[in-house]
Amino acid sequence: MSFTDIQLEYHGEQSQVAIIRLTRAAKRNALNDGLIAALRQIFETLPATVRAAVIDGDGEHFCAGLDLSELQERDAGQGLMHSRGWHTALDRVQSGPVPVIAALHGAVVGGGLELASACHIRVADDTTFYALPEGSRGIFVGGGGSVRIPKLIGVARMTDMMLTGRVYNAADGERIGLAQYLVPAGQAFTKALELALRVAQNAPLTNYALMHALPRIAEQNADHGFFTEAMMAGIAQSAPEAKERVRAFLEGRAAKVQKS
Predict the structure, then answer these.
(1) 60, 114, 174, 229: which is the annotated catalytic residue?
(2) Domain 204-250 belongs to what architecture?
(3) Structure confidence at residue 68 (pLDDT)
(4) By 3-state DSSP, what share of the chain in percent is helix, strand and coil, each rounded to 5?
């Protein structure tokens, strides 16, 4: 399967990790409708062997946001439907079949930050910077950023970014929650792939619960959350793979947690 402006390859034993790389380096990997459609198609058609994915950007930047050169004039209804199309595509990233790790470097701006926020783990290198310039351009986020980004950094910080054009560097971005890992320049992809290979070794049902149940539990009241947790705990531990892993631990065949 071939795509324009995006590269798909597989890595690891039995091709367990999908590597999805934006390849519009000359445009700082700015997002257009074709690239968004390709992302949706990729996540809707991942082979069953894939257990985790990495999203990376070719060149010096992860993604500099919406390609404004391709921005079309739309009436309100057309704009609404266009935004909903992006929502569907990025929901495939967040709520698809496998955990997704973003390898961030250079610009993670506008739609690029929206894409990163749809991933489950974000690894940034020292060159990374974050911004939401939509406010200064007379537009509003339309790829799900107003839902996802406040869950990472809070409404107040996102409001500040959009009102003032504030730019966060890599260290400050990691401090406020835009990334979970910070690595030296040029090492984001290596670290993201390392994490993806580790995640791919987890029991698939546990990964599914972390992707789909945990975010919902976090938004439920305590009583509903406890019940949902109990349901997922019962389902996950009933899987044959889970039973074998617990048995291996009890028999001393599995590694114990060590101080890192």
Answers:
(1) 114
(2) Orthogonal Bundle (1.10)
(3) 75
(4) 50, 15, 35
- Residue 134 is among the residues annotated as catalytic for this protein: yes
Query: In sequence order, which ranges of the chain are alpha helices (DSSP H)?
Result: 33-44, 76-94, 111-117, 145-153, 155-164, 170-176, 188-199, 204-208, 214-219, 222-237, 240-250
Kindly indicate whether the domain formed by 6-199 is annotated with CATH number 3.90.226.10. Answer: yes
Q: Do domains 6-199 and 204-250 have the same CATH topology?
A: no
83 CB neighbour count, 10 Å cutoff: 16
User: Is the pLDDT confidence value at 82 over 80?
Assistant: yes
Phi, psi of 258 (to 5 degrees): -120, 150
pLDDT score of 33 more than 70 = yes
Pairing of strands 17-22, 100-104: unpaired
| pLDDT band, residue 258 (cuts 50/70/90) | confident
Question: Both tokens of residue 176?
Answer: 């406020």
Q: Is 13 annotated in the active site? A: no
Sign of the alpha-carbon dihedral angle for 161, 164, 170, 175: negative
What's the pLDDT band for 1 if we cut at 50, 70, 90? low
Q: What are the structural domain ranges in the chain?
A: 6-199, 204-250
| Cα separation, 68 vs 80, whole angstroms | 17
Give the pTM. 0.93
**Of 44, 134, 219, 244, catalytic:** 134
